[in-house]
Amino acid sequence: MKIVNYTGILIIFVMITSCQKSEVQITNQKDYNTYLNLKRNNKTENLNLRLTFWNKKLNKDSTRIVALGPIAKVYSSLFQHTGDIEYLKKAEQTLLKSVEVAAIEKEGYLLALAKNYISQHRFIEAEKVAEKALKTNANSKASKMVLFDISMELGKYNEAEKYLESFANLSDYNFLIRLAKWNDHNGNLDATIRNMEKAKSIAEKSNKKELILWSYTNLADFYGHAGRIKDSYTYYLKALQIDPSNAYAKKGIAWIAYSYEQNAKEALRIINTIAESHRAPDYALFKAEIAEYQKNKEAKIANFKQYFDIVKNPEYGDMYNTYNALIRAEEFDDYDEAIKIAVEETKKRPTPEVYSVLAHILNLKGEYKTALQIAETHVIGRTYEPEVYYHLAKIYKSNKQIDKIVPIKKELLESSYELGPVLIREIENL
């Protein structure tokens, strides 16, 4: 099974020349071992100190509003840096109180709550909250930016485009990163990278570390999509220079080691190190894929068990529904439960990617015509994500539309870095 190296940004077709093991060594342990061997996580320690400070303020503040906002922000940061879902839920609880108490500047608290819901994949709730924020100020750029983000997650692309046009400004960082996302959705990788590079320059001039860090990691992702693996690696390292504990950048390097260099042993070493201090189900999935690549069935099953042990925590809500559906269908032939999960997910997040998952599972179950109908209605021509087209090729094969597979297969094989060696082996057999 292929677990996507998730960025929160749509993956697009790229032209990468071989699915064979790379002869070019990009990674070097000397570049990043220091970041893997951190004895202390200074970022988390500092966040906990700030949390203590603001909690003391909260106890002295009868209205609570002065401290609630900063406390919620610290909880959100702790979630990003530790992967502990409890922090995200605590941030939600704090923001709900903030919205209730706030007499002025309510828009900001509502938008912070909407962003929290986005992180929890509660997109419909996020949209309602962001719309309330917009009602407090009909001309608010901040509310329209968040509504753009939510519209993209809900597959409301026409609405997203209108929001984007409403705050267009090629000199503005927040517009450029969203324009990059829009270009990515439309399959224009050159424009995506160009706008992200402009945003990166603005972030560097602002000297705001959070913006610079976000720019570096996202630019690293896009460079990878474009086959510029060395540039991708460079920017993951630049991100680690700013935040040595950044799990996202380390995971990006692990993907380079695994997918580009096909050095599963090194990728696993990196992932195991990250997982020691950063709790997230994603690492168990990555390790399961590596185990499949190594043909280690026992390790693969153990990692899937670890994954399900983590996500059974009800605090995760809908965050891993798509993965849950895919794993149940692909690994355990539990098609009925997988379809049930996927159908519910299409109601909450009706994007072409989610419909692709539903169609794929139906195809695996043997409901070939229904799978094709869903793909034709909700998927084809609406996304450029390679894994979606892999699902589509499988559906075409089941429906004996062999002539449609050839061009898709060619594109998929040229997207080997994005898809990883496990899925490429399956694509070669289409």
Distinctive features:
about 425 residues
Question: Overview of this structure, please?
Answer:
With 430 residues, the protein is mainly alpha-helical. It is built from 24 helices and no strands. It has helices at 29-36, 42-60, 65-82, 85-101, 106-119, 123-136, 141-153, 157-166, 173-185, 189-206, 209-225, 229-242, 247-260, 264-275, 282-293, 297-311, 321-332, 335-348, 352-365, 368-378, 386-398, 405-413, 416-419, 421-428. Helix 12 runs antiparallel to helix 13 (247-260). The longest helix is centred in the first third of the chain and has 19 residues, at 42-60. The chain is globular, with a radius of gyration of 22 Å. The protein starts with 28 loop residues before the first helix and ends with a helix.
Present the secondary structure layout.
Elements: H1 29-36, H2 42-60, H3 65-82, H4 85-101, H5 106-119, H6 123-136, H7 141-153, H8 157-166, H9 173-185, H10 189-206, H11 209-225, H12 229-242, H13 247-260, H14 264-275, H15 282-293, H16 297-311, H17 321-332, H18 335-348, H19 352-365, H20 368-378, H21 386-398, H22 405-413, H23 416-419, H24 421-428
Helix pairs in contact: 2-3, 3-4, 4-5, 5-6, 5-7, 6-7, 7-8, 7-9, 9-10, 10-11, 11-12, 11-13, 12-13, 13-14, 14-15, 15-16, 17-18, 17-19, 18-19, 19-20, 19-21, 20-21, 21-22
